């Protein structure tokens, strides 16, 4: 088990965004979380990444108890989070954006990460820009690139950390159809080396990419299963897809 | 391409030091002394710039760190008859401890609150120098004794009343400070500082312990300021409360803004320009602050990133 939450709860004022949630996923999976707006998807992802701390419950990652660890320590354990609202360094160059992530990986110098021992930050940056399919001039200011490129840049920053788990929050939001296709093939490539947790609205994207889908509603898990099971599930159809 | 830019900027910074070295032979006496003062103040501003220009944290209390060095060096020399070198080393250590302690508390806040907390701390420091007047003589200050006007250094006897010696020491301090900031800014820490300045939340989510990095920045920044304060006390043999006042915190900010925040040489350029501007203006009018104000308005309108900031943006992208 790569991620396991027990009895996880978090409220904002009177609103229980996540309630007593038991969620788990295996290493190597591509897992998607879907659900209507306000179902608690982003809150769950934020709890796992450590951007938010839970009111109750526990989170284990890769066999370790991480509930009380700050976000930056969880990143060092291998949880990378890309933001729903693009969060890059707009005033810095595309290259520098990825270099900031790559530098951290080099500083960790984990023995399991052979590349970080032999290669330079610059080499890692070039590789990650390539993997993310960003063929723009890396000297360009990140804030001046097209929106789709900024989303890919976020993913490149995530890749530069070489995470065990890559959490992508609404990655296809605002992308054109063509860009979404590029994104899909990118995920298929990334999954070779990384477990992926996808928070996504776009049902066709989710069904074509995921091994398993978790459906959330009102802070709880409504259903979980392979994409075709979920599509047949009546409760899901009622809550999310609407009664046909 | 990167390597060439690195070489160019290294050459530029070395050239600045060489020019300053050469300047002492041509400057008339008055400007010679002024340049010495400015170089020490520039170290103060460069320390401030590490925090403000590179990390994006605006401290309104940097006079506190300058005064920490000033008093740590001055009081030990005056009351304990310490030698100049040991007083200077002591002042730097005290500066490091004080800035780390203040940073640990002030960094619990951010933005405007950080500005206010640092301002408050500085006020406490300023009022303390007045309160403990038995030791500090408050506003009136202390003139350091004759015994502290010379120092033994590596078998060399240096006379601190000699203008050439003072100029040389100030230049040496400036050079060390320049090397430290240059290495810092161009190294991994500099990248992390800039990342925090540009987007702290993202930096945290890339695995950086942003609190620890910011604390490091406050400590380096405060220690450089303290070194400047100590040098000021020892070179000019006077310590007084006015150095702890808000005026000096504002000066550091002003010098940095004018020269260009987030450029290594900006604070140095800004120190020279503002010092001379005020100096020249006050020869003609008592309203010299007006002249400073007009220059500031002009700068903000046309060079919002300071002089070197504008130069970097428009012409020399490789300027660190």
Q: First CA to last CA of chain A: what distance?
A: 36 Å
Q: Main sheet of chain A, how many strands, which sense, barrel?
A: 6 strands, mixed
Overall 3D shape of chain A: globular
Compute the average pLDDT of chain A.
90
State the end-to-end distance of chain B.
15 Å
Oligomerization state: heterodimer
Q: Largest interface, and how many residues on either side? A: A-B, 27 and 18 residues
Helix and strand string of chain B, N-terminal first? HHHHHHEEEHHHHEHHHH
Percent range for β-strand residues of chain B: under 5%
How many beta-strand runs of chain A?
10
Number of helices of chain A: 10
Helix/strand layout:
The complex is a heterodimer of chains A (244) and B (320).
Chain A: E1 3-12, E2 15-25, E3 30-34, H1 41-49, E4 56-61, E5 64-65, H2 71-77, E6 79-82, H3 94-108, H4 114-118, H5 121-131, H6 147-160, E7 165-169, H7 177-190, E8 195-199, H8 203-209, E9 212-217, E10 220-225, H9 227-232, H10 234-241
Parallel strand pairs in A: 3-8, 3-9, 6-7, 7-8
Antiparallel strand pairs in A: 1-2, 1-4, 4-5, 9-10
Chain B: H1 2-26, H2 29-54, H3 62-80, H4 84-106, H5 112-131, H6 133-136, E1 142-143, E2 150-153, E3 156-159, H7 163-186, H8 188-198, H9 200-204, H10 210-236, E4 238-239, H11 246-259, H12 266-284, H13 288-302, H14 306-314
Antiparallel strand pairs in B: 1-4, 2-3
Helix pairs in contact in B: 1-7, 2-7, 2-10, 2-11, 2-12, 3-4, 3-5, 3-10, 3-11, 4-10, 7-8, 7-10, 8-10, 11-12, 11-14, 12-13
